[in-house]
Specification:
The protein has 183 residues and is α+β, with helices and mostly antiparallel strands. It has two domains: 6-108, Ribosome hibernation promotion factor-like (Double Stranded RNA Binding Domain); 117-181, OB fold (Dihydrolipoamide Acetyltransferase, E2P) (Beta Barrel). Helix content is 25%, strand content 37%. It contains two helices and nine strands; from the N terminus they run βαβββαβββββ. A five-stranded antiparallel beta sheet has the order 7-6-5-8-9, with no helix packed on it. Strands 1-2-3-4 form a four-stranded mixed beta sheet, covered by helices on one side. Helix 1 (16-32) runs parallel beside helix 2. InterPro entries: NA-bd_OB-fold (IPR012340), RHF-like (IPR036567), RHF/RaiA (IPR003489). This is Ribosome-associated translation inhibitor RaiA.
Length: 183
């Protein structure tokens, strides 16, 4: 984690026991998902000070690359200290489930890889029909069309002109896309 966890208390006294639980559970989340940037935990009591039946809320915000993850759990069952620990554990358990789900979604995503930028020169050009052939620097012959020209003027091209392009594989063989004249 790049930023240390921040624990805020509202209408509650700070508790070393709760702080140690937050630290332990934060380390567990970090082991589960190593791209967590930061963590904010807000612990609050919604009513004035009572010993029993207080509503205690644990709000957890995990800062991740992309959208942040926010979880909130409330408990009002027994004593204040027990309810606070229960609320913290429930919030962290819910965050674990959401992180596992997020990790599974991200694992399914495939990164689109672009073809390498190649260089070559025109070996055959049919200006009236709008197509030609070029020889890549590694010796392969690649077909290209006027539509693939992204920079420069089609009428300025001639046999021997140096070009930059990306090679794609089509049904009939290799063809060039993103063709631009080399300077």
């Amino acid at each position: 984690m790049q930023i240390a966890p921040v624990i805020a208390y509202r209408n509650l006294d700070p508790s070393p026991a709760v702080a140690s639980i937050v630290e332990r559970r934060t380390k567990k989340l970090e082991a589960l998902f190593d791209r967590i940037v930061g963590c904010e935990v807000t612990l609050e009591a919604l009513q004035k000070r009572k010993v029993h039946a207080r509503i205690l809320r644990a709000h957890l915000v995990l800062h991740l690359p992309g959208p942040d993850l926010s979880v909130e759990r409330s408990v009002a069952q027994g004593s204040a200290q027990e309810d606070l620990i229960l609320a913290v554990n429930r919030a962290f358990s819910a965050a674990e489930k959401l992180l596992k789900r997020q990790k599974a979604i991200m694992a399914k995503l495939e990164v689109k890889h672009h073809a390498a930028l190649l260089h070559g020169e025109i070996t055959f050009l049919e200006p009236e029909l709008g197509h030609g052939w070029l020889r890549a620097d590694d010796g392969r012959e690649v077909y290209f069309q006027k539509d693939a020209l992204t920079g420069g003027d089609w009428d300025a091209l001639s046999v021997g002109t140096r070009l930059r392009f990306r090679e794609m594989e089509g049904e009939k063989g290799a063809y060039a896309t993103g063709v631009t004249p080399s300077d």
